[in-house]
Amino acid sequence: MLLDEVLESNKKFVEKFNEIKLSPIPRKKLAIVTCMDTRLTDGFLEQAMGIKRGDAKIIKNAGNNVLNHDVIRSVAAAIFALGVEEVMLVGHHDCGMTRVGAEKLKITMVERGISTNEIAKVDIQKWIGAIESEESNVIKGVEKIKNSSFIPDDIPVHGLIIDPLTGIVDVLYNGYEVQI
Ligand SMILES: [Zn+2]
Fold first, then answer.
1. pLDDT per residue rounded down to tens, the chain (180 residues)
2. How far away, in angstroms, is 34 Cα from ligand 1 center?
């Protein structure tokens, strides 16, 4: 079972690991909002951006979507409680959330026992956070963070996009220059 595998790995990890005391306050005073994509894990995104353990707060969800209160809440917590002074929203090419279709999603949900009544109560495509384009999703997300009444105006919010194949990062919004 997968859980046993994980616990076995943990034992081996702990045996070899040398404890390092790190502060919960990020050294680079940075918060990153990014996607839960499988390929951005194991330090891929962090290494591509020169981020080490202890450097940044990393907030992840499906499609690095700033749809809901929870992302703003986490960014606000990072700023007001944890010393963050800069935010980077990092989307990625080939995001799975661009391929989520409402009809297929509804069928899969019903097959797995989700109530059709509950599904009918929401715009399922919006609810799940499906996106049309990775680039415009980043730009919209930056706007939402900047326009939130809980994010101070002097916090630079950058919009970036990473290639999960090559690690190349492109700037879509330079938060030092662009006034939204
Ligand atoms: Zn993604």
1. 999 999 999 999 999 999 999 999 999 999 999 999 999 999 999 999 999 999 999 999 999 999 878 999 999 999 999 999 999 999 999 999 999 999 999 999 999 999 999 999 999 999 999 999 999 999 999 999 999 999 999 999 999 999 999 999 999 999 998 655
2. 8
Instruction: For the chain, give every residue range classified as CATH 3.40.1050.10.
Output: 25-95+132-175
Task: Give residue 18 CA to ligand 1 midpoint distance, Å.
Answer: 33
The class (CATH top level) of 25-95+132-175 is alpha beta
Distance between Cα 91 and ligand 1 center (Å): 7
SS3 per-residue string spanning the chain: CHHHHHHHHHHHHHHHCCCCCCCCCCCCCEEEEEECCHHHCCCHHHHHCCCCCCCEEEEEEHHHCCCCHHHHHHHHHHHHCCCCCEEEEEEECCCHHHCCCHHHHHHHHHHCCCCHHHHHCCCHHHHHCCCCCHHHHHHHHHHHHHHCCCCCCCCCEEEEEECCCCCCEEEEECCCCCCC
Distance 65 CA to ligand 1 centre (A): 9
Query: Ligand 1 centre from 131 Cα, in Å?
Result: 9
Residue 75 alpha carbon to ligand 1 centre in Å: 19
